[in-house]
Design a protein that fits this description.
CBS-domain; homodimer; Tetracycline Repressor, domain 2
Chain lengths: 443, 443
């Protein structure tokens, strides 16, 4: 989309032209454009959109822009938007609103709807409940294919997907599913019971959205049924919501691997204090963890006093240990996230890590002893080379084992971040290096 | 799936029961089970599967298992499998086979098919061409909805998806698309031209699969048309292949951010030498980068000799600089990957980074000067605190700017890994810390 051109039209107040140009664009692009405007201008442009487009655009807006617009429109306008939103999009919106706004909105809805909304708002973040939708197609076993297709035709526009339809009994127990493909290729007179599939993958409302996404990806599903503890169908997860959840989960993992805490918006939209809040805690923790490496060095003060050249190689050694550890932990964390590695694989992977980290340590030891010879003497070179081999091995093992340990403790393995592994490897690196030096030089 | 039970049946050679149990399972689960068997047993179990299931399972096998099976079956069996595979799955298989095997297989196909296969095998890794499929539904503008539905019904089983259908003219130029939903809800007598959408998002064969995935995610598409330079439709990317490509792309990013090189298989299946090959190069590069920090320290040898206590705080300072830098770079790299941040945003983000990194540096400086007072004296504490503030700021800026620089040079921003940022921050940290110390103590 040509943002400059549209911005120009906006500044020149050529509103009819602006509207015409905007309506040529796709919904997510219009939403992104509004996200970048100041609240009042965003509202003005939003009000220019035809009602149906406006509702679609609203669902795609950043939560900050949603909040701004909802606070500027009148109650009647807001109700009109909310009534037209898909249920899951409305919940996403309400989740980000201040409690008093939600309360006001809920006062204007029916008793049944209010209790449904409250139920959805109570699902924890990152749970299947928080991303599922209730607008799915439900069929009965006794229906013919023809009747099912007629029903779908009638209700298609209100449903988030019609490609996967679920079969329930009178008490809403999940009995099976048929895809629209099955319906289209089947004899119209056949009963749903004859063509439905019964071996369904399903999740419950409190499962994590990441698990749901992994199942959908593994079995190539466009939708996943969500059941309660009595196998009653309460909602479905559609592939678009799953993809958003997956993107968020990956972002969270990548951030966590770099010790960045929770951040509910993108870097571009985040206020500086939000970034500060997400970055400071772990950095502070690591500062205090690092006291230990300082204390370790203080213990070897005499050795350092005798051969100052030793400290020139310290950054090299502790960095390499940390780097090797970061590599192992990243490999394991990612494999765990995609389900390739389970807790019980630890011993197998430990053996493999030894087969990798020992030659890795030896090769890096060789390289660094060459540097040692050039920059110091043979003695220092030997100590540096030997230390390198050991610290790379130790760093790799820490990087490998820490994610397993965290998973065992039911913590997120991604917390075994590069920086954390680096700090632990540092402490060990300092102790190993100066111990070897003290021993070798007989200090 | 109950792997232990199935394994037991296999060991007891209860093959009929084994077959019955296996056929209860879903295709990806059967494939995973075969992946874990030795080649001969895998072949035996594979041969027990009914032909149709066998082909489906084959498509899901790890490339290593595919290779093993294809080398053990006879030519006739292999041809039967390949003829039944979807075209893109067959290409995926051939891509991983040794050249002589591919040659032998190609000898047994028709001239037209052979040249098509060769064309697909030539698409670069990670290109749209390498993941697209040719089995899509094509319609004509003049068709009625009814005729289109009849055509779909007839060919549904041979197509990867029937939910998105493409409209082409006589020369295969892409004219529009209709979803199966549009077809099902439209009047059967309407012409396709009346209901098709013309403002399509499309990609070309040489675009990256990551770009294609980003478009599909942004616009919630189940399929994406792929055109050549003359807008002729040559294939489509379906959502399942897109998700696989996306998963690979994320894995590649996470690995790269930890300086792990290309790895075509999971950690579990990778041989030790493959892991060594992917890990060694960057560690070696970083060893040589780290010579600079050692050289920097050698330059300040006198300062270090005078106040040895200074080096006790070195790991703390350089680690914190590296950690802060890893945070910034991870935030930017991920935002770039999901399309939130573009090259031209650098100045805006630099200003924001200053607003975050200055207070971050001051707070960490305060914390570390407290440690300095406890472990050394007020002078050292002041130097450590001040240095911390500066190195955290500098580290953050390096972490922020490096991804932009790499993107500007058309390199992958994820190469601005934590370890690389850490090494650069180290060198700067050493110089800054000892400069401040030399100045403060008047050495």
């Amino acid at each position: 989309m040509n943002k400059e051109r549209i911005m120009e039209l906006l500044e020149q107040k050529k509103l009819m032209l602006l509207k015409a140009e905007l309506l040529e664009e796709r919904t997510p692009d219009i939403a992104e454009f509004l996200d970048e405007l100041d609240p009042k201008t965003a509202l003005m442009v939003f009000r220019m959109l035809p009602k149906e487009t406006a509702v679609d655009v609203f669902a795609y807006l950043d939560s900050e822009t949603q909040k701004n617009i909802s606070q500027l429109v009148n109650e009647h306008e807001l109700k009109a938007i909310l009534d037209e939103l898909f249920f899951d999009d409305m919940i996403d919106f309400l989740e980000e609103m201040p409690a008093n706004v939600v309360k006001k909105i809920l006062q204007n809805t029916t008793e049944t709807r209010r209790s449904l909304i409250n139920q959805f708002l109570n699902y924890p973040d990152n749970s299947v409940g928080s991303i599922m939708t209730i607008e799915f197609v439900d069929l009965k076993k006794e229906m013919t294919v023809k009747a099912a297709l007629e029903k779908i035709r009638r209700i298609a526009l209100e449903k988030e997907t019609i490609y996967t339809c679920y079969v329930m009994d009178g008490e809403r127990h999940l009995e099976g599913m048929v895809s629209l493909k099955d319906l289209v290729i089947s004899d119209p007179e056949k009963k749903i019971a004859e063509i439905m599939r019964e071996d369904l993958v399903s999740v419950t409302t409190f499962d994590s959205d990441e698990e749901a996404a992994a199942l959908m990806q593994r079995y190539n599903l466009l939708a996943l049924p969500v059941v309660d503890h009595e196998n009653r169908l309460v909602g479905i997860v559609t592939f678009d919501d799953m993809m958003d959840a997956l993107e968020d989960a990956v972002t969270e993992d990548i951030h966590r691997m770099a010790t960045v805490g929770e951040l509910n918006t993108s870097v571009v939209n985040a206020k500086p204090w939000m970034l500060l809040k997400s970055r400071l805690p772990w950095l502070l923790v690591l500062v205090f963890v690092n006291i230990l490496s300082g204390a370790g060095m203080a213990f070897f003060e005499d050795t350092i006093q005798s051969i100052v050249a030793l400290v020139f190689f310290l950054p090299l050694l502790i960095d390499s240990a940390g780097n090797a550890g970061s590599q192992s932990s990243a490999l394991i964390i990612r494999s765990m996230a995609v389900g390739d590695v389970e807790l019980e694989d630890w011993a197998k992977l430990l053996r493999k890590e030894l087969a990798v980290a020992i030659p890795l340590g030896l090769l890096l030891g060789l390289a660094s002893s060459l540097i040692g010879i050039i920059r110091a003497d043979v003695g220092v070179a030997l100590v540096v080379g030997l230390s390198m081999a050991v610290v790379v091995l130790v760093g790799s093992l820490v990087g490998l084992l820490l994610p397993f340990l965290l998973k065992k403790l039911n913590l997120d393995p991604a917390t075994a971040s590069g920086p954390l592994v680096t700090s632990i490897a540092d402490i060990m690196g300092v102790m190993i290096y100066f111990s070897i030096a003290t021993w070798y030089f007989g200090l």
